[in-house]
Amino acid sequence: MSQPVKKEVFELTFKDYQNPYEELEIARKEHPVLWSTIPLQANTSGKPSNFWLVTDYNLTQAGLREPKLIKDPRSIIPKEKWPKVPDALKPLANMQRLFMLFRDPPDHTRLRRLVSKPFTPRLVAKLDPRIEGIAKDLIDDMCKKETADLFGEYAFTLPVIVIAELLGIPDKDREKFKVWSKHIQKTLDPSRTQTDLEKGVDSVEEISEYLSGQIEEKRVQPQDDLLSAMIKVEDEGEKLSREELIATCTLLLLAGHDTTANLIGNCVYALLEHPEQMNELRENPQLVPNTIEEVLRYDSPSQLTIRFASEDMEFGGQQIQKGEKLMFYLAAANRDAKKFEDPHQFNIHRSNAEDHLSFGGGPHFCLGAPLARTEGQIALNMLFKHTSSITYAKEPEWREGAKGIKALWVNIEK
After folding, report:
1. pTM, whole model, 2 decimals?
2. Domains of the chain, start order
3. Given a cut of 50, is residue 90 above it in pLDDT?
């Protein structure tokens, strides 16, 4: 292994958001744990953002399970040194701090235990027929058009309907959830702008008011839905507070919608780029589950995750100081040649595709992984069952300043 290289900063340029893999491969060859920075134009703080970039599969897997690496750095620095949050952004910051995603034990343990009780595999399995019905309706609507945006009209829409129904949100309010999800998700993107943050604040305030009303209604008249179940759930005398309920529902909306939309969109895009494998899938639907795992590996819907060192420590041959940030680039780990043969090749027959790290690991392993897998498999199966052909109508459109599909224009034949 090469010597520590902290003094020579590797700049992660984000010059090509849609294909970061070449740049990440260059970083890996320099050192699997590399002192790095993001250029100012991609950093909303206006200050250099330095961090340890981790691209190695084994180190990422170990790091996600390392208790010395934590989510919330405020626990290891004096309160007077916490970053100052402008008053205008406090509603957004306060909600995000309640997200299970950004909390450490014992708070994270308590929250996950309470949410896991009603959010069971049995609950997910009960959704299968409904997901199939929603997918069929969306496919029928697309087939009526000369060209369709498969991302916006299918990959993006299916998960938001599913998560809204799971939570017990009325049909008439789905469009609001689409907008709120889009705006709040953007605030978590490294390329966010001040305008994105302001829209995120507005959406946080609106969704908080909306969910407060839903909570009050379901306290009086519980329904057979996840929100009612989370209101009711209690473990060793503990319950979710109103603020935790709102934050958890918002996180479920984001995690259960945006990443699943990316999974479905990335899947169809990869198959359009590899038509011989799409044809093989049509002939052999039994390959669908492994195809979903390969898409998760090949083009991870969640590209990275952050941890902070809770104490001085050695990691991957580097001396990490207390409070320093580590960016575990899941998408890079998923293309580590030491783990995956021909990692930059899309292969629906890959025997170890399910070893990907796209759902994270350790105590923060994605709670919604079974639902994401179910939605991805059903979405793909239904496309093949109810169409005879899917081809490009024109070039895809890509998000600006972030990885992901914005529109996937296709011709669909029944």
Report:
1. 0.90
2. 1-84+303-357 (3.30.43.20), 86-301+362-414 (1.10.630.10)
3. yes
